Known about the structure:
Structural class: mainly alpha
CATH architecture: Up-down Bundle
Number of domains: 1
Strand content: under 5%
CATH topology: Outer membrane efflux proteins (OEP)
Number of strands: 2
Strand order of the largest sheet: 1-2
Distance between the termini: 69 Å
CATH superfamily: Outer membrane efflux proteins (OEP)
Number of helices: 12
Helix content: over 70%
Radius of gyration: 32 Å
CATH class: Mainly Alpha
Amino acid sequence: xxRKILLLLTVLLMFGTLNNVAFAEDSSxxxxxxxxxxxxxxxxxxxxxxxxxxxLSIENAVKLAxxxxxxxxxxxxxxNKAKDARRQGKNAREQAETLMALPxxxxxxxxxxxxxxxxxxLLAKNDYYTKYADAQISQLEKGKDQLxxxxxxETKALYYNVLVAEKTVEINxxxxxxxxxxxxxxxxxxxxxxxTKAEVLNAQLAVQKSKTDLDxxxxxxxxxxxDLFNRLNLPLDSETVLTDKELTYxxxxxxxxxxxxxxxxxxxxxxxxxxxxxxLQKIETHVYQAYYTANLWQHKSAAQKLExxxxxxxxxxxxxxxxxxxxxxxxxxxxxxxxxMDKTVELSKEASRVNQLLYENGMVTSxxxxxxxxxxxxxxxxxxxxxxxxxxxxxxxDGSNIIGTATVAPADDIAEAE
Length: 418
C-alpha cells in the first residue's frame, strides 16, 4: 500500500511541474526514444505527400502545418499520461477508503502504519488525485485547442504574406509597364523636338526605379514563400501555387462583441485553470485544516492558498474580457486604416487620370504623370497590405475565445506601407 501511494505521488509530482500547455514535455527516455522513432518513421511519408502538392488552398496549408507540428503530438502524449495518473488516483482513493474503514487493530495486524503519510491518504480519500488528473486532462485538451488555433493564425498570416508579395509584384510590374510606355512617348517627342532631354532622363529614371522596386518585390516574394513552405514542411524549392487569392472584408458593425466576450468566458483555458485550481485547493485546504491545528503554519497556509485561489477566478474572467476587448479594438483600428487607405487609392486613381489628361494637353510635365502613377502603385500596395492586416486581426479576434492576443503576432508587420 505504502509503495503504491508513493508511486502515485511520484507520478503526480511529475505532472505538477508542468503547466497546462507544456505538460507533456516530461517523458521518460524510453518514451522520448519511441516518440522520436515514430516521428522519424512518419516524416518521410508526410514529406512524400508534401512533395506532390502543386496547388495549395489556405485550409490545406493550415492542415499541413498542424499535422507537421510536433507539439501537438507531445500534448496528446501528456493527455494519455494524465489518464494513467487518473486511474492510479482512483485506485489510491479506493485503497484509502478501504484502509480507513477497517478497525485500527486489523490495520496494525496487516503491518500497515496508517499514520505514515496520513495527509496523502486523506487527500486520496477525498479524491484529490483523481480530480487533479481530471483537471490536467481538461487543461491539456484546452491547450491542444489553443495550440491548434495559434498554428492556424500563424499559417494564415504566412499565407497572406505571400499573397501580399504576389500582389506587390503584380502592381510593380504594371507600374513598370506604364513607365516604359511613358519613356517610349518621351523618346518620340524628343526625336520630334517637342520634349527636352531632361524629360527623357526623368522617364529613364522612373523606369530604373520601377525595375528596382519590381526586383525588390520579387525578392520579398521568394522570401515569404520560403517562410510559408518551411512552416508547412514543404520542399523549399517547391513550385506550389497558392489558390486562395481573394482576401475578404467583413465590417466590424456585423460583429457582436458581447457575444464574443461570453464565448471566451466559457471557453478560455485560463478560466478553466483558475476554476480547477480553486476546486483542488478546496479539497487540499479541507484536508490540511482537518489534520493540522489552527496554530500551525500548515493550517494557516492552506487558508491563504484558498483565499488566493478564490480571488484568481474573478481575475481570470476580467483578464479574458480585457483580452477580447483588446482584440476587438485592434480589429477596429485595422478597419479604420483600411477604410482610410481605400479613400487614398480612390484619390490616387483620380490624380493619375487627371495628370494624364493634363499631360496630353501640354499642361503638366511627364514627371507629374510618373509621380502620380507611382503614388497610385504605392497606395494600391498599401491597401492590399492593410487588407491582409485586417484579416489577421479578424483571425485574432475570432480566436480570442481560445487564445489570447499576447500569443498572436501583431498584424502591423504586414502593414508597413501605411
